[in-house]
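cron nightly-structures :: item 1 of 1
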Amino acid sequence: MTTFLTRLAPAALILTLTGCSLAPDYQRPSMELPAEWTVAQSQTLQEKWWERFGDTTLNSLVEEALTNNRNISQALARIDQAQAGFGIARDALLPVPAASGEGARYMARSATSPIALRQGGKNTHTFSGLLAASWTLDFWGKYWNAAESARESLVATEAAKDHVMLSVAAGTVEAYFWLSAYTWQESIAASVLKNREESLRIYQNRFDNGQISDLDLLSIRANVEIARNALASARMAKNAAETSLAVLLGRSPAQIMKEGALKAPASLMTSLARTPVLPAGIPSDLLDRRPDIRQAEANLRATNYDIGSARANFFPSFSLTGLLGSASIELNELLRSRNSYTALTGGITLPLNFWTIKRGVDAAEASKKAAVAAYELTVQTAFKDVRDALVSQRELANSVQALSRQVEYLNKAVGHARSRYDNGFASYLEMLTTESNLFSAQQALAAAHAQHLASIAEVCLALGGGWKN
């Protein structure tokens, strides 16, 4: 066996070292980047960016989601699958060992038959054992390129997992804020409904005493139903936010069906420990930190290697096979050195279906063109996400300030309108309009608070994570 390997190794080494790759040289697609790209400072990535909101309940929910979310579980399983695929592709570069054994019993009808005479008896046995190794030499880099393609597919799968984790974290943060906002809206609607039902009883007595008109009473009753409808809508939205959050957290079906299992205080909208301060400009390492861009580029590099593998099919393939075996008519003689034998064979396969191979190369090159377009689209979408998220968080902050002032002014206006109505200086319609405007503004303020906080999470998602100032 040692002699066999000694003869095989030099030839294999020479052919392996003279191998080459037919894959084209890879270059990242060139795209025109915004002016901020050249002046913006690189931001240090903060993995647990949600901690910047300073809410301990939120922190624990995000950690739970990252541990139990089923989308993340699928992404992790895909990584295992890609790792196995990479291992299989890499194994193609190595010799393939095999072992076999065989035993046979020959029974001749006559002691003078040719088999009986050759074997030395009417009934004889034969035993054999064989160790073999076959190796397809990667002279043109076909299997090396396939292994590198599988490696890039693994990198893409890992980046996809990072993107899923980032999306799950952002989704959990946003669901938590919306749950708080709908809780606030529910509280506002319940309070308004209670006040309007009390007012209805008062104004019903006034109507019975002839102090107000049919129009005023009908308007009051309609306003009660408006508040009741708003309360029902807030409860439905709150329920949807709660169940969405439960799925993100990976809760069981029994827990999902349990109402009120997840709660976010209404006061969260105005009492966060701190609101993150966003960086100016675009981080210069955006192309490297966004998981979806890393995934798209890894897929592109994989198609580049696929072209090399496809081109290698135009050339002949070389193979070596080594055998070490033994054969004997007696089992106890099988391992005797005099019964052993060795063999070394080489083979060459010449392809003749060049038209089919050409189609394979064309398909690989077309796949690369598609991957280039996918990469460029991903980069375009990334910058769109950054711009939209930065503008949204800035303008929603302005919206929250404006709505807060509007609620403050309308609170005062309602007080004046009630006083004017009670003293006979204004119609009930005037007071009703002012109260309705206040109710609408309060509901809008709750939604704007949630949108503003969620927009900060969207900025983190668009930038590929948080940042350290």
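cron nightly-structures :: done
Residues 1-9, 11-18 have pLDDT under 50 and may be disordered.
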